[in-house]
Write a structure and sequence with these properties.
It catalyses: (6S)-NADPHX + ADP = AMP + phosphate + NADPH + H(+); (6R)-NADPHX = (6S)-NADPHX; (6R)-NADHX = (6S)-NADHX; (6S)-NADHX + ADP = AMP + phosphate + NADH + H(+). The protein contains 15 helices and 17 strands. By secondary structure, it is α/β, with parallel strands linked by helices.
């Protein structure tokens, strides 16, 4: 999925329209989509008896193609429908199926469920009776596969309209990823997401999936300063800043200074300094301010010094409670800010729209890169580019993991000139380290894994 474009419902419709304008018939696209889902189902479910649920639109048409192609492979297939097809291509797909259909309410349970009721573009929740039938049938299946998107989710913001919906083992995204494959709560329903190439050209998009970074290994000519010098400003709670500084070291920064507080400990290679004089060192490539900073007068003085230093900044935690969009907008070098939901609202207010919309608006407002943290981390640049991370492991929801991420971001910013690219690299490494650490981790466990995931990217 690395770096793949993510298309909204409108963008996907436009891509399909351009494909058809170029001479590809919509029926051909439906055949390709159905063939891709049938192949994935065959491989994933080993030919077990299958129930295919078909809606009235083109997603249902894809379902009829799936049913026909599985039947041709000898699979025992049952088709249940929500209603008659409403498009000519879906009608043709049903005619080509040629077998019996049953009403959704009368559908029997089977080992495999293929959900082709609704896909991209759904604007409202499922009817209660439809949702109940879907939950019943999915609950009895051993394997559940969604065509394009789980039925009942909103494509562009991942909403479920407050409806109880089943969880799937696999979702076959048709043509391109959609925001709902990455945004919660829909992303949690999708299971493994695979993208089927159905022959629709997907142009570059301002919305992409965060990909695995390529980090060049140090060369013979490198030394500690060329690998990046990071200054981490400590404050009232030294442990948070120490976590961040150690994460920066483990990420490959050549020289890390922990300054401004009384913190001790850490790796022997960590340099401790009092005050903020290090900010005057021209060799500093990135400054991190916020983890453990506090919110008193001393914290405000430290933040003011950081804002005035003219170096690339990463602001996290308490610094986000003390800063303002106007101050960020006035910086000579665009900062990276890493708020969770509460910090985001405190800094930017209650912005409307999806997480994509809010992050993009905040980045434009403050002219900085915004890393809106969460189970579906969204990164936005001031020029409108947005990247979304893979769903984060749930065990990251523990104290200190945000401080580790801040240190990762600072180390990447010290090495990468583009703050948007630096933030993406850090978020990917953070998620990979969490996966490697496994469940029931504490933040310190991430430090042991960062070196491994960084090495794998070199």
């Amino acid at each position: 999925m690395s770096g793949r474009p993510i298309l909204t419902a409108a963008a996907m419709r436009a891509a399909e329209a351009a494909c058809m304008a170029g001479g590809t018939d919509a029926g051909v696209l439906m055949e390709r989509a159905g063939a891709s889902v049938a192949e994935a189902t065959w491989r994933f479910a080993a030919g077990a008896p299958t129930l295919v649920l078909c809606g009235p639109g083109n997603n249902g048409g894809d379902g009829y193609v799936v049913a026909r192609m599985l039947r041709e492979r000898g699979v025992d297939v049952t088709v249940a429908v929500l209603g008659p097809p409403r498009s000519s291509h879906a009608l043709a797909a049903r005619a080509a199926w040629g077998g019996p259909v049953v009403a959704l309410d009368d559908a029997p349970t089977r080992a495999v469920l293929v959900d082709a009721l609704f896909g991209t573009g759904l604007a409202r929740g499922l009817e209660p009776a439809v949702a109940a039938a879907l939950v019943r049938l999915a609950g009895a299946a051993r394997v559940r596969i969604a065509v394009d998107l789980p039925s009942g989710v909103a494509t562009d913001d991942g909403a479920t309209f407050g409806t109880e919906l089943p969880t799937y083992d696999m979702t076959v995204a048709l043509g391109a990823l959609k925001p709902a494959h990455r945004l919660q709560p829909a992303a949690a329903l999708c299971g493994r997401v695979v993208v089927a190439d159905i022959g629709v050209a997907v142009a570059s998009s301002e919305l992409t999936a965060i990909g695995r970074p390529s980090l060049p290994a140090p060369g013979a000519e490198d030394h500690k300063y060329t690998r990046g010098m990071v200054a981490v400003l400590s404050g009232a709670m030294g442990g948070a800043a120490l976590l961040a500084a150690t994460a920066a070291q483990r990420t490959g920064a050549g020289y890390v200074v922990l300054a401004g507080g009384a913190s001790a400990g850490g790796l022997h290679a960590l340099v401790h300094r009092q005050g903020t004089e290090v900010l005057g060192d021209a060799r500093v490539d990135a400054v991190l301010c916020g983890p453990g900073l506090g919110r008193g007068a001393a914290a405000e003085r430290t933040l003011v010094a950081a804002l005035a230093c003219g170096r690339p900044l990463v602001l996290d935690a308490d610094a986000l409670r003390l800063a303002s969009p106007a101050v960020l907008r006035g910086l000579a070098v665009p900062a990276i800010v890493t708020p969770h939901g509460g910090e985001f609202e405190h800094l930017f207010g209650a912005l409307p729209g999806s997480r994509i919309d809010r992050a993009r608006a905040a980045a434009a407002m403050a002219q900085c890169v915004v890393v809106l943290k969460g189970a579906d981390t969204v990164i936005a640049a001031p020029d409108g580019r947005v990247a979304i991370a893979d769903p984060a492991p749930a065990w990251l929801a523990t104290a200190g993991t945000g401080d580790v991420l801040a240190g990762l971001v600072a180390a990447m910013r010290a090495r990468i000139d583009d703050p948007f690219a630096a933030a993406q690299a850090a978020v990917w490494l953070h998620g990979a380290a969490a996966e490697a650490a496994g469940a029931v981790l504490v933040a310190d466990d991430l430090l042991d894994m960062i070196r491994k995931v960084v090495s794998a990217c070199q």
